[in-house]
Each structure stands twice: as C-alpha cells, then as structure tokens.
Please model this.
Amino acid sequence: MRYTYRLRPGRAAEAALLAEWGRCRWLWNEAIHQQKSGSKPTFAKLSRLLTEARGKLPWLREGSQVAQQQCLRGYMQSLDHSFTVKGRGRPRIKARKKSLPSLEYTTRGFGISDGRLRLPKGVTVPVVWSRELPSAPTSVRVYRDCLGHWYASFVVRRDIHQPSPRGEGGVGIDWGVTTTATASDPAFDLPYLGHRKRCAAELARAQRKMARRHRKTTTQSRGYAYAKRQAARLAKKAMRQTRHDSRVWAKRVVAAHDLIAVEDFTPVFLSKSTMARKSADAAIGTAKRELIEQATRAGRKVVMIRPAYTTMTCSQCFARAKRLELHERVFRCDSCGFSDCRDRNAARVILATAERGRTSVEDVRQTDRPPSGVGVVAV
Ligand SMILES: [Zn+2]
Model:
C-alpha cells in the first residue's frame, strides 16, 4: 500500500525536479511518436532507444536513468491498459502547461537519510514525516498537485495489525443522492455530507474574483493566478473532507460485517440529470471506492450487485412491483403487503441477493420460481 507525505523542496530542488519532469515528459511524448509512426514499441525496444539517446544527448544524460526508465515503463503500462481495459484511451501527449509533474523512482534511485528524501544527481528534499513508515519502501512517486504542493508517495508493505475481529452477518448498500449510502441496517447509513454546498458561497466569491481579473489577452495577471489558486484550494478542501468522512464510514461498516453487498452503480447518468450538482457533491464514487478498498483490505467478502430491478423488487418475497417514480419514497409489495422506505428495501434486496450467492436480482427470481406445472396455484 501507499504512504504519502508532504515534501518541502527548496528553490534549487524544485527546479531540479521540474527539469527532471521536463526530460521525462519529452521521453513520454517521444514514445507516443514511436507508437503513432507504426513501429510497435516494447519496453525492451524503448529502453534500447533510451540508452542510445542518452549516449547522444548530453542534456538527457543530466537526468536520472531510473526516473527515465520508470517513465517509459509507465508509458508501456498505460499503452497495455488502453488495449485491455474497457473505456481507456491511448496514452496522450503530455503538454507542458497541462500536465502535472510526476516522477517515479525504484529502490536503486532513491534513499532516505536524516529525514530527507535523496534522489539521484544530488537532489535532496525535506519530508514532513506525519507518521512512521511501516517498512522500508520499495519505490516512490514524487508528484505535484494542482495547488503546487509536492508529495512523495512510498510503496510499503504493512502487516494487518491484528486479525480483525470477524463481523457478523452482511450488509447491503444502496447508493443515492438524498442519502449517499443507505444500508440494510439503518445504523450504517451515510448521510449526504454536502461539503461542497457548505463552501459554495466562498467558492462563488473566489470564482467571481477570477472572472473580474480575467484578461482577454493570452497571459493572465498574477492576481488572476492567485484567485484561481484560492478557488482550487476550496474545491480541494471539500474533496478532502468528503474523502475523510467516507473513509471513517467505510471503516465502521467493514468492522461490523462479514459480507458486504454493494450496488454496482456508475454515477454517470446522475451527472447528466438535473441533480447533477448535488450528485457530484454526494460523491458516491468516493464512498464506493473507499468501502471496497477497506473491505478487501480487511479480508471481507465483497459482492457487486447489478442495480437493475433492485428498487422494484420486494426484499421479503422477491416479487416484482410496478416501477416506482423517483418521488415515491415508500415501497409497497402487492403480493405480501410488505412496506418500507424505498432505499432501505433496495439495500435489503441487494443483501438478500448476495446471500443467495447471486449478483443480479433477476437471477434470484429465475431460480426461486417453482418449476412450472408442479402444483402452482395462481393467487
Ligand atoms: Zn413482497
């Protein structure tokens, strides 16, 4: 897993890091050129070209070989993913003004001494050690975020502290906008946090300032850059608060349950609806990611349930009700008379589906239906 720390590079170190990033960026773009011109690059081929180029170009030799090789490795990985992972595009050109610096070093490329991160070519950067590293890191990624802050993210091994006490039973999670996550047990709901809504006025003020200072010419003033940074800082703060709260919630859910059934929900359609702003703020994606990560880390069983029919099915008898409109908040079953809050019912359906070892509600209906003609009386 990764442990991330803030870096405080001095002026010289920052310049060195940016120069290193410039060289790596050039290599990345060169690799894209290789791919586009039809010579199918492999990592071995690219490494050979890198060695040749380092022989010829003194400015490239000034950089660290480890960082440059890792950059090409990263390129090959994203090229592979563009063929194998659905929806992933080909690696794109990294433009100077649009891409954020990110450098990767393996064990032979970095060291830690006197509390400083030592990188090749005599670059040392002070690290803010906010917590102990659990073990010796095997690699590090040095990167800068959109606010201009530098971070080092170490890859370390960590033992599971204690075999976490087994939780009891399972929990079903249904995602929504008014309540971000509705659990089958009301004690484990995640309410809508609304961190972005709370700082909306402040954010609007920063954005107005940006608009006022915006120039139609190509270069922007320092005042504009300052206002832009302020707006970005607010957005980031809201994002961090949401992530923190989701993480705390996910830990609590995972600690208490053995089986975690999650609605496999992609919030794409919500972002296109009239609830777009609120759904973005609800940050379902963040909560879902945190929950799955915490659960797999604790060794719990995670089942992803297809969202189709979860709201229309009765959690008691698995009968299909008529389609519910969005404003109808209460579910009523016509066959058994069961009635519950719409989202709670959906969460229970999700849990019941997972407990039967299925991943879609339709499967359960198909298998649970008694075979035709064997004493079935229509009611
Ligand atoms: Zn029913």
